[in-house]
Amino acid sequence: MFPQIVRRLGLMVFTVWGAVSLTFVILRLAPGDQATVQLGPDAAAADVAALREELGLNRPILVQYLEYLGGAVTGDFGESYRLREPAMTVILDRFPATVVLALTATALALVAGLLLGVLEGRSPGRLVDRVLSGITLVMQAIPPFWSGIMLILLMALTLRLLPSAGSGDLEHLVLPAVTLAIPFTALVARITRSSVAEVMTEPYILTARSKGSSERAVLARHVMRNSVIPVVTIVSLHIGTLMGGAVIVEQVFAWEGVGSLLVNAVGNRDYAIVQGATVLFAVVVVTMNLLADLLNSSLDPRIRTEATA
Fold this sequence. Notes:
The chain is mainly α. The chain has two domains: about 15-80, no CATH class; about 90-309, MetI-like fold. The chain has helices at about 1-30, 35-40, 45-55, 60-75, 85-120, 125-140, 145-160, 170-200, 205-210, 215-235, 240-250, 260-265, 270-300, 300-309, and strands at about 80, 85. The protein has a two-stranded antiparallel sheet with strand order 1-2. The radius of gyration is 24 Å and the shape is globular. The N and C termini lie close together (about 10 Å).
């Protein structure tokens, strides 16, 4: 188990380095730069050149990269020129709002997805399975920006039950969390359905039933324990997609998280914010993947055996 953790930690470092480097390259290849955006298109060439020199943008790319990499190792991504604060300070101030949104959406998706998946998997091919499978397929295909707008029109403008935008309290959290959870719920349901349907045909399930165990006991003690393993894996791997979806959802609902901060920073070429937020998302994703592997090992002894073999 310990060698497996060491290998994964090494892979995590390599992945984060790749994200750091790729972000640096993409920002430098994009048209325009921070000096041009900051001064505006009508600025004099001499002023732009002076600001580029002040920001270090006229130095060789390799020198800029090494300085950026050295700062990234210590968590120093520079100062946001728009907000006049250290980039990581601004990002970490917004990060809790994104975490709350992502965790709430994940909890909603797990509860609803597991319930739908079990209902489908218990009777594969029957009417309930076909109807619920069709519903989950539609849910997975709906883009978050469209479902978010539809929820605003229905719940905020028509029924006036919830606020249409903003952040800070439970009422403002409901609509963006539900919007973010919709496609994730469908994914969890489809994975759970396949896993439950497969586990229900295993010999030990027939043995448990022959011993007089009730259907509820069979589901709780045997089916769910073995069916949840692929769900745990999918949830951890989906964290990156969830973070990406949060960027869109936060914009739709004016939720003050890292996603909306990142969108504004990209538009304004605020390199420090973009680089810091990207690295933070990369660290979250690889950490969740490692935790998923450890959790899968604890749920399935066969994984521990293969890891130590």
